Amino acid sequence: MKILVIGAHPDDIEPQMGGSIAKLTKNGHEVLIVLFTDTGEELVEMRIHESCDAAKILGAKIKHLNYNQNNFIFERNLVQNMDRIISQYKPDSIYTCWEYDSHQDHQVVSKVVLASSRKNNANIFFFEPIIPGGITPYGFEANFFIDISDTIDIKIESVKAHKTQLDKFGDSWIEAIYGRARFRGFQIGVKYAEAFRIVKVINQI
């Protein structure tokens, strides 16, 4: 299968579904990570480099679209660009940000992916709200789980590739990521898992 994973920033993917990506690539599937923005920070080149290192650890390919975070809004141009990527890559499944995530950039990405998947030619899944994130009045209703007990160490290694963010958030960031994976695993009777919300299933998972 060909899997497209879409986020806004360099560290959006690994904390949410790094274990699932590692499992997919280990099983011979192709994964392409697409990141929309340049983060709008002085450390932009370093963060892009970190995201490439993380993707390599997971066995995934990565593409940076380099939109400026400071004026990143939902508009036709973004949808048209994503239309082209989906048309060229022809993914079986697409994973992306939850529509009610507290970060405005994540909300934009979610809207873009929903608009670009209007032809119903791929499965669509939301991954969980991004850690760290704000509290919202909405609850993430997980209805699809992937056992990552065998790939949790690869997931954490890929998260730690984001050294600037590890310096920023400290070890508690890693502990929170471990904790959520352990909680999701407990829900389905395994050690570690990642949770998703099914938007639509068109192809066999």
Structure, described:
With 205 residues, the chain is of the alpha/beta class. 43% of the residues lie in helices and 20% in strands. Helix 4 (104-116) links the parallel strand 4 (93-96) and strand 5 (123-127). Helix 1 crosses helix 5 and helix 2 (44-58) runs antiparallel to helix 5. The longest helix is centred in the last third of the chain and has 18 residues, at 171-188. The termini are close together. 44% of the residues are buried. The model has no long low-confidence stretch (mean pLDDT 95).
In short:
With 205 residues, the protein is of the alpha/beta class. The protein has helices at 14-26, 44-58, 76-89, 104-116, 152-160, 163-169, 171-188, and strands at 2-7, 30-37, 61-67, 93-96, 123-127, 144-147, 193-200. Strands 3-2-1-4-5-7-6 form a seven-stranded mixed β-sheet, with helices on both faces.
Protein traits:
single chain; 205 residues; alpha/beta; 7 helices
Strand tally is 7
Q: Give the fraction of residues assigned to helices.
A: 40-55%
What is the 3D shape?
A: globular
- Can you tell me the residue ranges where pLDDT is under 50 for at least 5 consecutive residues? none
How much beta, percentage-wise? 15-25%
Largest sheet: 7 strands, mixed
Number of helical runs?
Answer: 7
Mean pLDDT rating: 95
* Largest beta sheet: strand ordering: 3-2-1-4-5-7-6
Which H/E pattern describes the elements?
Answer: EHEHEHEHEEHHHE
Q: Which value, in Å, is the CA radius of gyration?
A: 16 Å
End-to-end separation: 9 Å
